[in-house]
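[Solved] Which block belongs to which protein?

Original post:
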Amino acid sequence: MPSAPYPDIGIFSATEVATAAEEGDTATIIGLFFDMPESDPCIAPLRRATRDLLEGRSVPRDEISDLEMVVSELATNAVRHAKSGGNYRVHLELSGDQATVTVIDNGVGFSPDAVPEPGTLRPDEVCDGDVGFAEGWRVGGFGLPLVHSLSDEVSIERRQPRGMIVRARKRLRTV
C-alpha cells in the first residue's frame, strides 16, 4: 500500500486501497481511511485528500465540491459533538459511479429526531464570543441538512454502547 498522501501531516494515517469487487463485477473500489483525534480537528487535510482522490478519478468539479463539503461537515460534527476524548474515523469509498462518506465516532450519540432546528442559538464550548454572541453560544444546526441536500442518501445509526455512524452516498456523473 502507498504511504500517506500528505506525509507532512503526521496526525492521521491515510491508506489508499484498490480492491477488485465481487467476482464477475468489473467495478474497482478505491478508498481513503483516516483515524483522526477529536482534540485536533484538522478538517482541511481531509478536504484536500478528498479532492485529490476525486480529481484523480475524473469526478466533475461540482461533485468534488459537494463531497468535500460532506466530509467537512460530518467530520466537524464528530469533532464538535462526540466528546469521547478519543478518535473518530472518516472513510471515503468510490465504487463504480457511487461515492460513500462514512464518519464513525465513539461519542455520546444523538437522536436525529432531537436535533434542534437549523439557525437556532445553542450552547457551544468552543465559541470564544467573537461572533456577536455571548461567549459559549453559537447559531448552528446547518451541517446535517446541508449533508442531506448534497447527498442522494444519508443514514444515521447509533452505535452501542456509544457512538454514531453517519453515512452519506452520492451517485457520480461520469465526465
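(Second protein starts here: sequence line, then its C-alpha cells.)
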Amino acid sequence: MAVRRACLGILILACGVITTAGRDPQPASQSAPPTVLFITVDRNIDHVTQGFIAHAVSQAEQEHAALLVIQLDTPGGEYDATRKIVQQLLAANVPVAVYVAPKGARAASAGTFILAAANFAAMAPGTNIGAASPVSANGKDIGGTLQEKVTNDAAALIRSIAQERGRNGDKLEVTVRKAVSFSASEAVDAHIVDFIAKDTEDLLTQLNGKTAQTAGGPDTPRRTSFGKTVKTLRERRDLSQSMLAQSAKLTQPYLAQIERGVRRNPSLKTLRNIARALGVPVETLMSTSHADLTDVLLGRCARRFGLRSSLPLLSSTGGRIPSGEPYSRQPWH
C-alpha cells in the first residue's frame, strides 16, 4: 500500500455507478420495498475512489437502503484514502457488504482494510486478500524508522478494524507486518471474512436476514419478492390488479399469480409491459446493471468506446463526484 499520494496518471479500470432499488425518491415507509445499492470499485484506491465510496454511502443513507454492496477488485492504493474509506464504512448508518469479485479479483493491500471494515465481508471463489504491508508510492520499501512507524500505524488500524467487526485480528495483522495473503477459502477458515459467494445473487441470498451493527444501531437487510415489488408499486399508483393487467396486456389471474409469488420468472416481454404500465424503467424489475465510474466522472460512456484513460482524473473532474443522480433503481428480489 502506498503511504504517499500516488501518481494520478493511473489507468481507469472498470468501476461502477450506484444502482439502487425500485423506490420513489421519498422517505422509507413500511410499505416501501427494501432497496439495495451496488457500486463496483475496480481500480487503485485513491482520493477519487474515496470520494466515490463516500458518495455511495451518503446516497444509501438518503435512500434508507437496506444494504450497500461494494464489489471490489483492487491491487491497493493510497494509505490516507484507505483510512478515510475505513472511517466512512465504520460510521455508515446502513449495512455495507464488500464483495471481492469476480473470480481472479483481489483485495490486496488497501483492499484488505476496506474488505475487513465492511459489516459483511464476502469473496468469490478464486479471489484473494492480503499483502497489505506499507510501501512507498513507487512500490519500494520505505526503510528506516519511517517504515517502522508506518507499519505500526497500519497494524494498529487493522487490529482496530478487526475488533470493531469481530474478525481475526492476528491473521489480519500478519497481512500488514509480513505481507501474507489468503485465498478466499483460507480467509473464511481464518475468520478474516464471513463467507464465499459465487455471484451477487448468492451474496444477497446469504445476506438475507443477517443483522449488522451499524453506526445507527442494529440493522437487518431483508429481501422482498418480485411480486411484492410489483404490488407495492401498483398500489402506490392507485391501480387495481385489473387496471394494471389491462395496461400491461396481461390477464388479471396471471398478474395475481405474479404478485403472490407463484410465477417468479416472467418473460422479458412481460417485465417490459409491466414496467411500462407502472411508469418505471424496466431495470427496476430486473437484475442490477452496472456502468463505468468513468461514465460518471467524465460524462461519457467509456466502456462503449473501450476507453481506458490514462489522463489525470483531476484535470477532468477536479476530484469531485458530479452532482445529479446518474442512477437506476433496482428492487431487492
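Accepted answer:
You had them paired correctly. Confirming on the second one: Residues 227 and 260 are 6 Å apart (CA to CA).
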